[in-house]
Design a protein that fits this description.
CATH class of the largest domain: Alpha Beta
Shape: globular
CATH architecture of the largest domain: 2-Layer Sandwich
Structural class: alpha+beta
Number of strands: 19
Distance between the termini: 43 Å
Number of domains: 2
Strand order of the largest sheet: 5-6-7-2-17-16-8
Strand content: 15-25%
Length: about 525
């Protein structure tokens, strides 16, 4: 590692995991995280530029490009030709300046590679969208994962209402252990524990058994924990290695280059929590069951059979301890979640999603997939590609569910009225589903391969009705029918006067869950 005046790092090796994400770029699926912030009224471009200069560029990664040496090793190198005008780009939205116009522009950006000779990020200030402005961000996944990037992007914002900024959060990065990038406190920490508890514990207790075995050997307490967890680790490893393909649908196939983007009007978060309390489920459970129902409605609308249908989604799982200082780079795993699309009864579907999520929470699949990425990132591309293709061919979608700030935020002096974000898909996965809550609303969005899902609006339009069915059940049924012991068929009969789903010839789903859901 070289340096110039002071402690400034000018050359640092790209980690194995980040190298894996760098290599995953394909014309049909670029490894970019795409986000949209919508301002409540037009923003001053000069003020926005000042915020980006003073806050975003405090992170060295956003001034560094990737350079490969003769041996094919990737390095972070300071870009001596850095020009902010190449990264903060204005754009005037054509057409009607409506959602459709912005969606077309975002889809075009999602299909356009970032310049590999420059730092791998770009902000597009979109003027003329619905009478205001929007900021579209494209950041390559090799810079950081979604959890880290969210904290970085939140560092650009201020609380609404002129309140003082929250305390700063220290940034830990190689060569910059005491760097302070004026980060706001992470507002999502209370939400990260439910799905990540098991993964974080795995890092603390047995993670070294998979990733840093040499260190583990010198720590008897951690070695004992690893031995006690070995059967579960072995079982989860087998589930990854022996995954069967999910149900073939029109959403699976060879991807093209062109993308399509769609989103809905946000659902009230208060209504989502009402359903959670009434049906004894988490916010995650409710929203994921609505995704499964929307997929069911979309496929049936295309004339496809859904009986017994299982669609596997790869779900990112944070592997960072909740109190750890921010490090850029990637520190997450992927867990395969099978969505019970074949369940016709919405309550039965919700309960099945809850059961499967509970089974995944204390497992090690996220940690194992992280170790796998670290291994393939150090291997030649010829070894990496078949392994990543294997995982991708077993899934139909990549799905994220991110609980965002509860209160409105301001960026460059303007309130943000809406926030959206999508993570990339890999190999021939053609569907990305994102759920993001912000300021009392829940935003559902889709980015899709146009060849496999030419009309993602049809999928978006099926989401709200699925939630409204659950809301109707929660609002209209007497308390004695609800609670932990609720009976899905009894609820459906009481509400709709209908016989159980199975009696109508609609199978509620496979009798025996597949490997990923029986953990």
């Amino acid at each position: 590692m070289g340096s110039t005046g002071g402690d400034r790092v000018v050359r640092e090796r790209v980690s194995a995991v980040d190298t894996a994400w760098l290599r995953m770029d394909r014309p049909s699926n670029l490894m970019m995280i795409v986000g949209i912030d919508v301002f409540d009224r037009p923003v001053d471009p000069r003020r926005l530029r000042t915020v980006v200069e003073s806050r975003l560029l405090a992170f060295d990664r956003f001034r560094q490009r990737v350079e490969f040496d003769a041996a094919g090793v990737a390095w972070w190198v300071d870009d001596d030709r850095f020009d902010l005008d190449r990264h903060l780009v204005p754009h005037v939205l054509g057409g009607a300046g409506d959602d459709a116009a912005l969606q077309r522009f975002v889809a075009e950006l999602a299909s356009t590679p970032l310049d590999p000779e420059r730092p791998l990020w770009q902000f597009h200030l979109v003027r003329g969208y619905a009478g205001t402005d929007a900021l579209v961000a494209r950041i390559h996944h090799c810079i950081a994962d979604g959890i880290a990037l969210v904290r970085v992007l939140l560092s650009l914002t201020d609380p609404d209402g002129g309140r003082a900024r929250p305390p700063r959060v220290a940034v830990a990065a190689p060569g910059h252990e005491h760097e302070d990038a004026r980060l706001v406190s992470n507002p999502w920490r209370p939400f990260l524990d439910p799905i990540t508890h098991g993964a974080v514990r795995a890092i603390e207790v047995t993670g070294a058994a998979v990733v840093e075995s040499a260190k583990l050997a010198h720590d008897p307490d951690r070695l004992l924990g690893a031995a006690q967890s070995a059967p579960r680790i072995a079982a989860d490893a087998a589930r990854i290695a022996l995954m069967t393909a999910d149900t073939p649908t029109s959403l699976k196939g060879r991807t093209g280059v062109a993308k399509a983007v769609a989103w809905n009007e946000p659902l009230p978060l208060a209504d989502v929590k009402l359903v959670c309390r009434a049906l004894g489920a988490s916010v995650n459970d409710v929203l994921l069951s609505c995704v499964a129902g929307a997929l069911r409605g979309y496929l049936r609308g295309r004339g496809e059979a859904t009986e017994g249908c299982e669609i596997r989604a790869l779900v990112p799982v944070n592997l960072r301890p909740a109190d750890a200082p921010l490090r850029l780079g990637n520190r997450f795993g992927l867990v395969p979640l099978e969505l019970p699309v074949g369940f016709a009864n919405p309550v039965a579907r919700l309960l099945e999603v809850r059961r499967r999520m509970d089974a995944l929470k204390d497992g090690y699949q996220g940690l194992l997939s992280y170790g796998l990425l670290a291994a393939v990132g150090s291997a030649p591309r010829a070894v990496q590609t078949p392994i990543l293709d294997y995982l991708a061919h077993k899934a139909t979608a990549v799905m994220t569910n991110v609980p965002g700030p509860r209160e409105p935020l301001r960026l460059a002096g303007r309130r943000l009225s809406r926030m959206m974000c999508w993570v990339p898909q890999s190999s021939d996965i053609g569907l990305g589903v994102s759920i993001l809550s912000y300021a009392g609303g829940v935003q559902f969005g889709v980015i899709a391969d146009r060849r496999l899902c030419p009309d993602p609006h049809a999928l978006i339009d099926a989401f709200a009705p699925e939630f409204e069915r659950l809301l109707l059940i929660a609002a209209m049924l007497p308390a004695e029918l609800l609670g932990p012991g609720l009976d899905p068929d009894r609820l459906e009969r009481a509400l709709f006067g209908a016989p159980p789903s199975a009696a109508r010839g609609e199978a509620p789903g496979p009798k025996r869950p597949r490997a990923a859901s029986s953990a």
